[in-house]
Design brief:
heterotrimer; A mainly alpha (187); B alpha+beta (331); C mainly alpha (665); B: 331 residues; alpha+beta; five-stranded mixed sheet; 7 helices; elongated; C: three-stranded antiparallel sheet; three-stranded antiparallel sheet
């Protein structure tokens, strides 16, 4: 009886939640997005021949408020905040503007975190699980207003920083052809 | 979750006390319990008598007609009884008030110059304990298991870095909240050696249910020995497997959150693991500290405490065994 | 005024009957709801609104009860995997929120909305359109909360929503925002209904019902309504601060920016503790209404009871800190709240003693309503006594936030409010529906609920003393809590069966019409609602009654005067003076209208929209303004409707042609 109930009730709720908010799920034990998505990702659309837009990858966590808030927590606890501050940048480049040195696509951000980048960005390969990196990537994009507004976290219980830009427009991760952004030095 | 050692069959009872604070509160409980039991029996007795009392049949009147002209004499008697009842209630309340005040006085007057100070920080969902000392190298940080000497007053300084928690070890004292932005304190003393389980008592999120701790009260000399053993850096690995385990620990995600003194691991996000093998439980009082539990916890902690902050760490079987060897060597 | 002319006495009687019949028809036409769905949507009659109010609140009680059973199943054994921590968090939060905000307070107000105008001998509740608006807002708020829950957006930070856990950092997503807006909905509803009740009680009483003749139940409603008016704004303020913190980044509760999480606790409990009395006081009113009827004598100690109610209402505002004894507040301040908490037991004690005395001196008839009152005594006294224990700061430090407290407040709230409420259902449903409920099933209902309740909640005292904290989704097997939890779950099942029997009883007796016809006054009770047919007509009383004593119907003389001179073609009511209920003036009540429904819909759109975008408050204000304009648009009056010259106001007529006329019987 209890066994049957044990299965039936969660199933019922799962069914109800099926139509429901992806935003609100608390995925404690879900498979993280595959890291394969981010292997061999190009960091720039500067390429020989005719310019082709880079593929846009999807990070499921960007639609989930819990995952983004976990990303925010990790962003602080893994000390991203030490260089990038609360998105405004300082030692590292700002994350809340629209300018990306190594690309703003989720896969590009994943790769930047895992591989590290010249001039100070450490490589977190092996030190963070894929799940954590995808969550951080989702939060980083929320800083620039690139995830839905109702998913992005609210204020911190902390000293408040400057407000994030209100733009919710999804920007393709491409940069204008010309000088490769990766050639720019982080300020 | 099965198979707790008999030593881990804790009592968490308010009425099974081991120190003067909880003891005084227990006495107050029994005073109130007996008095109120008496009150309850008397009130229910009156009610029962009022309901079941035999009544003279009304002469010449239909039973159902309302009695609009009650006997004045009886009404007067009843008002005397009601007034008497109210007077007795006020008296009892007054006794309770005084008893409660005296008990409150007694449980907060444990302050003493000679005491131990432990700073307890509530985290979602575990406890960090720091033994404060004016000499920095004698300061000790541990988690979820707090040793205290018997017979010595302990000052707990309580703080929280995230949400509100409540520190509660029923056999030693009542609870005190840990509130972000406020520092609260709690004085207590254990008079009997033993292991006393406590638990967070303020709803603090998904794993509020699994935010336990153990306070181990032991004779001062034993406490001293424990304290000294905990002060030093972690044991050096003695086997090749342990050495490999340490190597994996400091290159895997473990290193980002945990501290093991004497290694590169210095994370402050999760519990300090320098002497993790000396603790009775892991995962904040949730699991007995055995190899199997440890393995389950490292690979899939989200199954045991869904929502907790430790990510599942995928390790190859050999690597996992090596890490377990290493962790179990950290006495 | 009907003219009387007839040759013979028989003709006269016949003609008089005809006149009476015509008047009833006219009144029905004036006061009745329109036909069909439109009539259903536009009604402003306190009985139509009250009925659906009670029904809705009861439906929420069933939903809240189902949530409770789910929790009990989860806790029936240690480390159970029936509900995970996430779902359990949502369910226990929903259970508390639904029971407190969508059931307990609304059902008490709903009963009052139905009963008070009848007990006072008037035709409708004051501000009837506001009344309809209050219901719709409440319904939409409840629907919003349950929709959110089904969509996995159910609040999960507890019904008390302590910050910072419920704040922007620790409760991501929209779950807590829905909770905060539910509060706004229910507060709005509770406040408007409370305002109507106070006005009705002060100004619409039957002539002769001076303050010292008001039924005790109505007194309790008055105290409740005042408490609502003073307590609810605090929580509305608190929940608004919370939603501002979450949605627009204010810092009311952020300690780093000068806010304070303790502020939330003060605001919440300044409402939260009076809330308990808001629920409990009208329930004592039920008890005071049921006891005299079933022991066949007036209540002993009327004045003492009324003063107890009023003083409970005052002292109830001075206790809130006893919810925060563990928060490390200064000791001297805590002692004050210990004293206040103990003192409030005194007025409750006076009430209990007076009730027992009344039973002592009366002749009890053991009908179902009286059985529930007896059950109330047992359960409530026990709950009250454990409450006195928790007034003590040191003892509270041990039992606070444990299952001991869970046991305590269920004893007080189920014993103190739900048992009397079920008694009230059995007592007044014959009046509301016209059918008697089955006594056999009624007794079964009572015993199942009584035994089940004690089985479910008594073990929780022991669990709390053994250290089991509240709000845990599971517990470990090595702590020795398993057996008592299983027992509590079994008790919960028995209690559920009891509630089920009530539903069956209602279905068989009322829906299937197997119950006996109730007639005007099936219990031989003494208050005015029993002086009119069951169910009462739309206009309540053909002739508004007058009152000669406290137990109106018992003390009525055969030639008790009635009020005449009110028009039956418009919604005329008689307004009386506040203290002595002398006739003061005639007042015309507004007609049925759909505007309150439209206003409630636009308010709903504004509140729900604000969860997703703060600008919804600005944009949403436009339809609210439009609907309110429609609502208050002055009524066009025909030429014949023009008030006679010399009157000061348009709607008011001085009581010139109003008489208290002897009724020939």
């Amino acid at each position: 009886m209890t066994k049957a109930l044990n299965k039936a009730v969660p199933a019922l709720f799962a069914l109800l939640a099926f139509a429901a908010c992806e935003r609100e799920e608390r995925g404690f034990r879900v498979e993280p997005p595959s890291s394969a998505r981010a292997t061999g990702v190009a960091l720039t659309d500067f390429q020989p021949g005719k310019a082709q837009p880079l593929p846009v990858t999807k990070n499921e966590y960007e639609a989930n408020a819990f995952a983004v808030s976990e990303g925010k927590r990790l962003y602080e606890q893994m000390n991203c905040v030490g260089c990038h501050f609360h998105g405004g940048g300082g030692i590292g480049p700002p994350l809340m503007d629209e300018k990306w040195i190594y690309g703003g696509d989720p896969a590009q951000i994943f790769s930047t975190v895992v591989e590290g980048r010249p001039n100070g960005m450490p490589a977190f390969r092996g030190r963070l699980t894929d799940e954590q990196v995808w969550k951080i990537a989702a939060f980083v994009r929320s800083l620039g207003g690139q995830v839905q507004k109702d998913v992005a976290p609210g204020r911190d219980d902390d000293i408040s920083g400057p407000p994030a830009p209100a733009s919710t427009e999804q920007k393709p991760p491409t940069n204008a052809p010309g000088i490769p952004k990766s050639a720019e030095m982080p300020k | 979750m099965k198979g707790f050692a008999p030593s881990l069959l804790y009592s968490q009872s308010v009425l099974d006390t081991a120190g003067p604070q909880a003891g005084r509160i227990e006495s107050l409980w029994w005073l109130m319990f007996w008095v109120e039991l008496g009150v309850f029996v008397v009130v229910m007795g009156f009610l029962l008598a009022a309901v079941l009392r035999r009544r003279r049949p009304h002469r010449g009147e239909a039973v159902d007609a309302p009695d609009l002209k009650p006997e004045p004499a009886r009404e007067r008697r009843m008002s005397h009884l009601v007034i008497g009842g109210v007077a007795v209630s006020i008296l009892i309340q007054f006794v309770f008030l005084v008893a409660s005040y005296l008990t409150g006085d007694a449980v907060t007057s444990a302050m003493a110059k000679e005491h131990l100070t432990v700073k307890v920080t509530g985290r979602q969902w575990w406890w960090e304990a720091t033994y404060e000392n004016s000499v920095a190298q004698y300061t000790l940080t541990t988690a979820n298991e707090i040793h205290i000497p018997v017979g010595v007053p302990v000052l707990f300084k309580l703080a929280s870095t995230d949400v509100i928690h409540s520190f509660w070890v029923p056999q030693l004292h009542g609870k005190t909240d840990l509130i972000p932005g406020h520092e609260t304190i709690l004085w207590l003393r254990a008079d009997k050696p033993g292991a006393y389980r406590g638990q967070c008592a303020e709803f603090c999120g998904y794993q509020h249910a699994h935010m336990g701790l153990v306070v181990v009260a032991e004779p001062p000399e034993q406490f001293k020995a424990w304290y000294d053993s905990q002060l030093g850096p972690a044991r050096e690995p003695s086997t090749a497997s342990e050495a490999r385990g340490r190597e994996i620990f400091v290159t895997a995600p473990c290193v980002m959150c945990h501290t093991i003194q004497g290694t590169e691991a210095g994370g402050r996000v999760g519990p300090n693991l320098t002497h993790v093998a000396s603790r009775q439980t892991i995962a904040a009082g949730t699991l007995e500290n055995t190899r199997g539990h440890l393995a389950g916890w490292v690979t899939d902690s989200q199954k045991i405490k869904p929502g907790n902050r430790m990510p599942p760490v995928p390790l190859a079987p050999d690597d996992l065994q090596a890490v377990l060897d290493y962790l179990q060597s950290l006495k | 005024m009907p003219e009387r002319s007839g040759e013979t006495r028989a003709d006269e009687i016949l003609a008089e009957d005809l006149v009476e019949e015509r008047e009833r028809e006219a009144l029905e036409k004036t006061w009745g709801d329109g036909p069909g769905l439109w009539g259903w949507l536009t009604t402003v009659n306190h009985k139509s609104v009250g009925r659906r109010f009670i029904f809705t609140a009861f439906a929420f009680f069933i939903f809240g009860g189902i949530l409770a059973v789910l929790m009990r199943v989860q806790l029936s054994r240690p480390e159970n995997n029936f509900l995970g921590p996430d779902l359990y968090g949502q369910i226990f939060t929903m259970h508390g929120t639904v029971m407190m905000f969508l059931f307990a307070v609304p059902v008490m107000e709903a009963m009052a909305v139905y009963l008070v105008p009848l007990m006072l001998g008037t035709r409708n509740i004051a501000f009837p359109r506001l009344n309809a608006f209050g219901y719709w807002v409440y319904l939409f708020g409840g629907i919003m909360l349950f929709t959110a829950f089904i969509l996995n957006v159910g609040p999960d930070a507890g019904w008390f929503a302590y910050v910072p856990l419920s704040g922007p950092e620790y409760s991501p997503g929209k779950r807590v925002d829905f909770w905060a807006q539910t509060i706004t909905f229910t507060e709005l509803s509770a406040l408007v209904v409370a305002t109507e009740l106070v006005t009705t009680i002060f100004k619409l009483r039957a002539p002769g019902m001076s303050l010292n003749r008001i039924p005790i139940y109505v007194w309790s409603v008055l105290v409740m309504a005042f408490m609502v008016i003073f307590a609810m704004p605090t929580v509305a303020l608190a929940s608004t601060c919370l939603i501002l913190d979450r949605l627009v980044g204010t810092h009311f509760f952020n300690p780093a920016e000068g806010g304070d999480p303790i502020l939330w606790q003060h605001l919440f409990w300044f409402f939260g503790h009076p809330e308990v009395y808001i629920i409990f006081i009208p329930a004592t009113g039920f008890v005071s209404a049921i006891i005299p009827t079933f022991v066949r004598r007036p209540m002993f100690g009327y004045t003492a009871l009324v003063l107890s109610l009023v003083s409970t209402g005052f002292i109830g505002f001075g206790l809130w800190v006893h919810h925060m004894f563990a928060a490390g507040l200064p000791r001297l301040g805590q002692s004050f709240f210990t004293g206040a908490t103990m003192i409030i037991a005194i007025p409750s004690g006076i009430q209990i003693f007076c009730w027992i005395a009344t039973i002592w001196a009366g002749r009890p008839r053991f009908k179902t309503p009286f059985m529930f009152v007896l059950g109330f005594f047992f359960v409530f006294v026990l709950g009250g006594l454990t409450g006195v224990m928790q007034a003590s700061v040191p003892l509270d430090l041990q039992v606070h936030d444990t299952f001991f407290v869970v046991a305590h407040f269920h004893y007080v709230l189920i014993g103190g409010a739900v048992f009397p409420l079920f008694g009230a259902f059995y007592y007044w449903l014959p009046k509301i529906t016209g059918r008697m409920l089955s006594e056999r099933l009624g007794h079964l209902n009572f015993w199942l609920m009584f035994v089940g309740f004690n089985l479910a909640f008594f073990p929780m005292h022991v669990l709390g003393l053994r250290g089991m904290p509240r709000r845990v989704y599971t517990y470990q097997p090595n702590l020795g809590w398993a057996d008592l939890n299983l027992l509590a779950t079994a008790g919960g099942v028995v209690m559920t069966l009891g509630v089920l029997v009530f539903v069956v009883n209602y279905f068989l007796s009322v829906t299937r019409r197997r119950g006996a016809l109730a007639g005007d006054n099936p219990w031989g009770a003494g208050t005015l609602e029993w002086a009119t047919p069951s169910p009462p007509p739309a206009y309540n009383f053909q002739h508004l009654p007058t009152v000669a004593g406290r137990e109106t119907l018992w003390q009525q003389s055969p030639d008790q005067p009635v009020v005449t001179g009110l028009r039956s073609d418009v919604r005329d009511v008689l307004v009386t003076r506040m203290l002595d209920a002398e006739p003061d003036l005639k007042y015309e009540f507004p007609d049925s209208t759909v505007w309150p429904l439209l206003a409630a819909l636009s308010v709903t759109a504004m509140f729900v929209g604000s969860i997703f975008n703060p600008w919804a408050v600005v944009v949403g204000a436009v339809p609210v303004f439009v609907t309110l304009t429609g609502w208050f648009w002055p009524k066009k009056r025909g030429a014949e409707d023009k008030p006679p010259e010399g009157l000061k106001t348009k709607h008011r007529e001085l009581v010139k042609d109003l008489k208290l006329e002897g009724q020939e019987t």
